[in-house]
Specification:
The protein has 290 residues and is an alpha/beta fold. The chain has 11 helices and 6 strands. Strand 5 and strand 6 form a beta hairpin.
Length: 290
């Protein structure tokens, strides 16, 4: 399966971001903590050149705790201010505003030297679809300032949100990039739901996830067996069929309904019911998971 999704509104959104970047002091990039490399849009680096940078690892409660530490160290070492959060429960949200001020301390000092008072930090929130930007903004603002949804593409246009007298946020639509050069990246993005599920072959995607989790070099091999009570020493499509039988996903004649079973596996991975799973490890920390 080829993983690719770049509808026309994303190109329009990126052009809008290019126009607005001149107004911005800080670029806050949200990534999914389960795949903090794959869920980074590489075009953001060019967009944000010369701006202060902040990396927010969202959904950290769904990711492998040890790898959360590795990714925090990785991005800190690469010059980012880093915060780990769970925007739904608001865990870690209290650390965000102080880090924004720290990331922009040079800008604040320059303003003070020039006699500019009470000019708020202007931060652009960027990220690919479905990493939780709107929920993050609402948690940070303490109100329903941005629309939210559990599927990509809810935010269609830009909007300014004033947090307080010190910080203003520019929310932007989730934007991917025109072509995934590495299909492993595309696969990880599809796993977490950042590609529209309607264009994905769900059975194949679920089999890919089962294969990944059963990799003997990882620590996740027992998760499928524990969750569904099936033998994982088989081909992925056979494991999926067994999951369908266990969960009573059947079609006429008692045959396993693989499409429904695939939906269950993907939903339970994305919600964390399978366990805390990371899809990759940062380079320089014993290699990148594939």
């Amino acid at each position: 399966m080829v993983y690719q999704w770049f509808p026309g509104h994303m190109q329009k959104a990126f052009r809008m971001m290019e126009e607005d970047i001149k107004l911005i002091d800080l670029v806050i990039e949200l990534v999914d903590a389960r795949a903090p490399y794959a869920t980074r849009n590489p075009d953001i680096d060019k967009l944000a050149g010369g701006k202060a940078r902040m990396m927010v690892l969202n959904k950290e409660d769904l990711a492998d705790p040890g790898l959360n530490d590795e990714w925090t160290a990785y991005y800190t070492d690469n010059g980012y201010s880093v915060v780990r959060i769970n925007s739904r429960s608001k865990e870690g949200i209290g650390r965000v505003k102080p880090v924004i001020q720290e990331a922009c301390k040079d800008k604040i000092a320059r303003d003070k030297k020039r006699g500019i008072k009470n000019r708020p930090v202007r931060a652009m929130i960027v990220g690919i679809p479905n990493v939780g930007k709107s929920t993050f903004i609402n948690s940070l603002a303490g109100k329903a300032a941005a629309r939210t949804g559990n599927k990509p593409g809810v935010t269609k246009g830009k909007q300014w949100i004033r947090l307080n007298k010190d910080v203003e946020l520019l929310d932007t639509p989730g934007v991917l990039w025109p072509k995934f050069e590495d299909q492993e990246i595309g696969k990880r993005i599809a796993f977490i739901g950042s590609i529209n599920d309607e264009i994905i072959e769900k059975q194949e995607l679920a089999c890919e996830l089962i294969t990944f989790l059963n990799d003997p070099d990882l620590s996740y091999k027992q998760l499928i067996a524990d969750r569904y009570g099936v033998d994982t020493g088989k081909a992925a499509h056979e494991v999926l069929a067994d999951i369908a039988l266990v969960r009573k996903c059947l079609v006429r004649g008692g045959e396993p309904d693989l499409e429904r079973a695939a939906g269950i596996v993907m939903d339970e991975f994305r919600s964390g019911k399978l366990g805390r799973i990371s899809l990759e490890r940062p380079k320089g920390f014993a290699g990148l998971l594939t």
